[in-house]
Specification:
Length: 195
């Protein structure tokens, strides 16, 4: 009985200091290419803090539990170009009912945009409105993909307007550009590996 305890004690004494010394040699990475976790964003004055789209979150409206409205900031400021709403009912049965009603109202979808494994089921319709704007409509059901929202979702967007916002934003950024520090422009290994 005493021998196993002694062996455990000796093993712990031999292993713990080695583990502690080893842990001291490796420090947790906090920085990559000059961007440091915990630093104030104000330290990076060369960054453009805007994006070509802004989002507002909406909660608990009608049959929807949550959603986002994305709107332009450059070409047509304030104009909604993308709507994403998550249905309160997460079930596959509800998705099937939605899909049936979407097909009745909008016809057969143009494209299946889900995955091949049947985890994300997603159908897309494309339209032109009366003003010749390209409109995209997507109905999605997510069973298990943790990178996506679980349950049922509908997306309605104007892809051409989103692209116009992106192009306007790029033009504006080029005009207002503040130079990035030269050290951050290098693509050597020192900048590519976290420190």
């Amino acid at each position: 009985m005493k021998t196993p305890r002694l062996i455990i004690l000796i093993t712990l004494l031999l292993v713990l200091p080695a583990g502690t010394i080893f842990a001291d040699e490796i420090t947790a990475p906090l920085e990559i290419n000059g961007f440091r976790l915990g630093a104030s964003i104000d330290e990076y004055d060369f960054i453009n803090f805007q994006n070509y789209l802004k989002e507002v979150v909406i909660n608990d409206i009608g049959g929807f539990r949550r959603g986002t409205l994305s709107y332009g900031t450059c070409e047509r400021p304030g104009e909604i170009v993308h709507i994403k709403l998550k249905y309160k009912d997460h079930s596959y049965k509800f998705y099937q009912q939605l899909l049936k009603r979407f097909k009745e109202k909008f016809g057969k979808p143009e494209e299946f945009t889900g995955d091949a494994f049947g985890i994300v089921l997603s159908w897309k319709w494309r339209f032109m409105d009366k003003d010749n704007n390209y409109i995209s409509l997507t109905l999605q059901h997510n069973k298990k993909n943790l990178d996506e929202t679980m349950g049922n979702m509908v997306k309605l967007s104007m892809p051409d307007r989103i692209e116009a916002e992106r192009k306007c934003f790029i033009r504006k950024c080029e005009q207002d550009k503040i130079a990035c520090p030269a050290g951050m422009m290098s693509d050597d290994w020192d900048n590519l590996i976290p420190k």
